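Continuing from the previous page...

OK, I double-checked the sequence for General secretion pathway protein against my notes and this is the correct one:
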Amino acid sequence: MLKDLFKNIKDGRVFCGLEYSEYAGDEKFYGVQLIRRKNSLEELKSFEVPEMEDLGEQLKKQQALFLVINTSQVITKSVGRTKVADLAVVNKAFPNLNMEDFYYEVSEVCGSTLVSICRKPYVDEILEKLEAKGFAIIGCSLALHQLRQVEEFLPKDKIHLSNTEIVREEDGLTIHKTDTVEVPYNVNGIKTASLYLLSLSAALMHFFRNTAGFSNLEEQNASFQENFYQKRFFRLFSRALMVLLLIVLLINFFAFNHYYQKVEQLKQTSEINTSNKEKLMELNALIARKEKLVEDVLSSSASRSSMYLDEISAEIPETLLFTEIDYQPLKKKIKKDKEILLNPGVIDIYGQSTNSDNFSLWIEHLESLDWVLRVDVEDYGFQAANTSFFKIKVRIADE
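Thanks. Re-ran it with the corrected sequence; updated structure tokens here:
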């Protein structure tokens, strides 16, 4: 699993093969994209475009691809079966060839050794144009050599490609250019057509990296791969770094926002507490002042009430008996959550009298007191033999 993950990171999940083909002056590009899903490769899509400028409609920028050049500029010979694929085979197929001017490739395909050559400026120009279009070249091959990736799944007699027919014979291969013949093939479960057989082989080369053969393109292909991996690593690392930076910034933002809200709440709480503290101090001061005022009033009231009671009872005749004295009586009965209302400047006196004359004289005495405004006899009535009950209201002059 880790191996698959590493390969996905290193190479990606999409593998592309591209054939640059030509027949009778008509150039075309055939492409196949394979995608890796779990443990299998599936064809993502195949396409055909007439010009290099149209590749951008089919492939994304920075798409890695393995290129096969299969045009009239590439010359291929079959030299039968050889034990080794080396420079001697190239010299045998193309005597007096200036190796500095040509790219060459030697490999065994379908039981026969193939040798292909192409001028370096031609190949380099194609590669430079593709790179200028934004595509990442992962490797390059000439003519038919990548067919070795799929040859075990191909017919034993004839093989059709986009511009070539290969006839398999006992003494080797017969290769000749031909017009397009579309023949279906099944390569290990991947269904394709003859037009895309070479580009499919290139895509498989992209995936498997099966480089059996001999070519002076190998060094350049290694450079292509190294350049691709460096750019891909830099691109992935940059994205990962940006994502990580974004995550850190988001965490910092949410953390800052969280603590900022907490600080604001604490500030508001502190301001409320300060305000409440000030109000509480003001209230305490007000209560203290009122308590002192109440104490002073109560002290004064207690002093006056004592004086009033002393003077009321000082001249009371023996024929009178007080049953209740109410200083500042209630105006109304006390009710829950209602204000208690007193009747200031009033003393209610309840009692019994056995002599009405003495009662009248006592009333006159009360009215003569300096602090008495007037005395109202609110009730006086017979209660029992020689006994009457009374209620008087003494109104105080200075309250």
